[in-house]
Amino acid sequence: MSSAAVGDREGRQGGESPEGDKATTTIAARSSIVDSLRGCGISGIRIDKEELRRKILMPEYLRVAMSEAIRAKDPDAGVEAWRGGDRQEDHAPEAPMVVFVNSRSGGRLGHVLKARLQELMGEEQVFDLSLVKPSGFVQHGLACLERLADLGDNCAKVTREKLKIMVAGGDGTVGWVLGSLSELHAQSRKPVPPTGIIPLGTGNDLSRSFGWGGSVPFGWKSAVKRSLQRAITGSICRLDSWKIEVTMPAGEEKMQLPHSLQYSEESTFSLENFDGELPDKVASIDGVLYNYFSIGMDAQIAYGFHHLRNEKPYLAQGPLSNKLIYSAYTCTQGWFLTPCINNPSLRGLRNILRLFIKRVNCSDWEEIRIPSSVRAIVALNLHNYASGRNPWGHPKPDYLEKKGFVEAHVDDGLLEIFGLKQGWHASFVMVDLISAKHIAQAAAIRLEIRGGQWKEAFMQMDGEPWKQPLSEEHSTFVEIKRVPHHSLMLNGD
Predict the structure, then answer these.
(1) Which residues cross the membrane (predicted)?
(2) Is residue 279 domain-shared with residue 226, that is, in the same domain?
(3) Is 159 a member of any domain?
(4) For the sheet containing 292-296, what is the strand order?
(5) pLDDT attached to residue 39
(6) Euclidean distance between CA atoms 462 and 464, whole angstroms
(7) In 200-340, which residue ranges form alpha helices assigned H by DSSP?
(8) 182-234: pLDDT as tens digits
(9) Minimal CA–CA distance to 172: which of 127, 105, 242?
(10) Which of 207, 234, 261 is a domain's end point?
């Protein structure tokens, strides 16, 4: 989630009139109200618990085999449990499903939601992410189903082919699960299960983008049943996935990284056809992003907020309290007083950053000028950002043509790059009074960062921030390129 700020009128919804802005703001407000009402579970449709259970519950012998494979971290252990088990019930359900729950999300709701889901679909199909990592499920549990299918178990084969995934958590949790499922592409293990969302985070922008709402409603027990039912019938949508690689001088202390990033054994980064230099020894971290990457002001605020919440967990009682604390914390960081504060870390990013992009069907890097006033740069994949805001706006066709832009979609192979200037500019962007500072649309992005007076830069990816150390002598590079395959999402509308 991000904080945002005041800007010039050039970015006003692609040149729309004030009346157009007012209409856009009204539509946004109305959409927010509708989203809230939908979240409250006003649907008029009663879902029978036992009927729902029959549609999603796997046969017991498959559940036991998968559970044993995950526990032993060995698919063959699940096969052995299958050989010695009772396979009388061998009919695959209509929509077999597993759920990953981030029990730490949603204030106190994560734990009780986990219990409710286990009641609806059995303990073996509900995984607490603090105990079972999504990669463990992919490499052991899912592999066990595939082994059983290869041994002639038709029920296991059909279950594997029809399997759907639900994730109860925030954007970072969803990204973590999607990243693990993407391993199936690299291993040629098809099909890749589509993913739906039960929103437990603070921003929940991935959830909003695919019709799952912005929060869990007050009547959450009934809403959970409705979410599972919508996952059964929901259509499948495509989502662009982007690999991010951060290459830095070696020798820095190991950083504390979010779940979605890890140190890579070998860097794939190359400076071929590029003006720059790397030290003799480099270290690299990489991951996959689905929503956005940002550097600067908003990432620094998010980093401080996350640490405050970890130090004082009693403050994190749910999405509403998180947003209130986040807003209050933002006001203490100096971003509303940048012209009056002589602090290098509050200056424009152009002092430490060079931005290069590749356009569609172009192999050459093009340097893009960063406005001197920009203190945060965001590369956005979705329409939703910072709890449902749309900082890119809805530019008119003539504005798009003038700027060389195209209409943004989640599967168009492009990232929208925009800037936030300071606290006031970001605030107006976040309430849809103006759009952010449009910088570029790109099929690939490269950032070159050199510290100087800056000892570190703050970055975040899909709501998970980290502090990136900078070298005074050598540059740190961030490169973002599209993954060849799309992620598959279930539509909750």
Answers:
(1) none
(2) no
(3) yes
(4) 437-442, 415-420, 376-380, 292-296, 456-461, 464-469
(5) 43
(6) 6
(7) 205-209, 220-233, 297-311, 319-330
(8) 999 999 999 999 999 999 887 899 999 999 998 877 777 888 999 999 999 99
(9) 105
(10) 234
Is residue 152 left, alpha or beta, with left meaning phi > 0 and alpha meaning psi from -120 to 50? left
Among 133-142, 169-178, 256-265, 376-385, the minimum mean pLDDT is found in: 256-265
Same domain, 312 and 198: no
Give the lowest-confidence range in 3-17, 26-40, 308-322, 334-348.
3-17
Residues 6+ positions from 128 with CB-CB distance below 8 Å = 101, 103, 114
What ranges in 189-318 are assigned the alpha helix state H? 205-209, 220-233, 297-311
- Burial (CB count <10 Å: 0-12, 13-18, 19+), residue 435: buried
How many CB atoms within 10 Å of residue 411? 14
Distance CA 232, CA 105 (A): 24
Tell me, yes or no, whether 154 and 112 share the same domain: yes
Can you read off the two tokens belonging to residue 447? 């950032």
Amino acid identity of residue 411, one-letter, is D
Other C-beta atoms lying within 10 Å of the C-beta of residue 111:
14
Write the DSSP symbol of residue 11: G
Which pLDDT tens digit goes with each residue over 406-458? 999 999 999 999 998 876 677 777 777 777 889 999 999 999 998 777 888 99
Between helices 154-162 and 143-150, what is the axis angle to 10°?
140
171, 200, 234 — which closes off a domain? 234
Rounded CA separation 443/359 (Å): 5
